[in-house]
Amino acid sequence: MSKARHGVLSASMGAKPGEFKSALAGKEGGLTFELSKLQNEVKYRDREFEAARRELTTLKSTVNTNERLLQQRSLELEQLKERLLSTEGQAAGQAKELLQTKANSRKLESTVLDLQRHNDKLKEKVASLSGKAEVKLLKSNNAQLAEDHKAACSLIRAKDKGLDVARGRLKAADVTQAKVQVRVRAG
Fold it and tell me: Per-residue DSSP letters for 43-105?
């Protein structure tokens, strides 16, 4: 037991430090046992106090660590909020583009349906033209076109022959002119 605690214990019992030892020496058993009991209790309380002090130090360290972690998490939370806002902005832009794409898709689908209806109408017209009278008319028109083609080909052949004759005359005239020029020079 430390001297300071011994003095406190003596003072609390109303005796001076020297008197306390003599009082203990005079009485047998009971006081010594009580003193030993009190000393053990003081040691126990000292250990409890030391354990509480260590626990307090540990808790302070834990609090500091948790405060740093809280600050770090707060910073991360702010960064995540900024990313969220950015992502929400991008998502809004993409949603707008998606709506526009859907509108364009609906327009294209409508155009395709219109073209299909038009195609069906044309098919109906072609089917209605396949009647016998119309086929006869088409054959007649086809035969007339064939005759016109033959006549045009004959006319072209005749013109080609005329051109060939004219070319021959032109060559003969050129030859005659060349002979005349040779005679004129010679003569």
Answer: HHHHHHHHHHHHHHHHHHHHHHHHHHHHHHHHHHHHHHHHHHHHHHHHHHHHHHHHHHHHHHH
> What pTM, to 2 d.p., does this model score?
0.34
The per-residue pLDDT for range 39-70, each reduced to its tens digit, is: 999 999 999 999 999 999 999 999 999 999 99
Do 45 and 1 meet the contact criterion of CB atoms below 8 Å apart? Answer: no
User: Which residue's structure tokens are 């020029």?
Assistant: 181
**By the 8 A CB rule, do 15 and 22 touch?**
no
- Chain centroid to CA 54: how far? 53
Torsion of CA 151, 155, 160, 165, to 10 degrees: 140
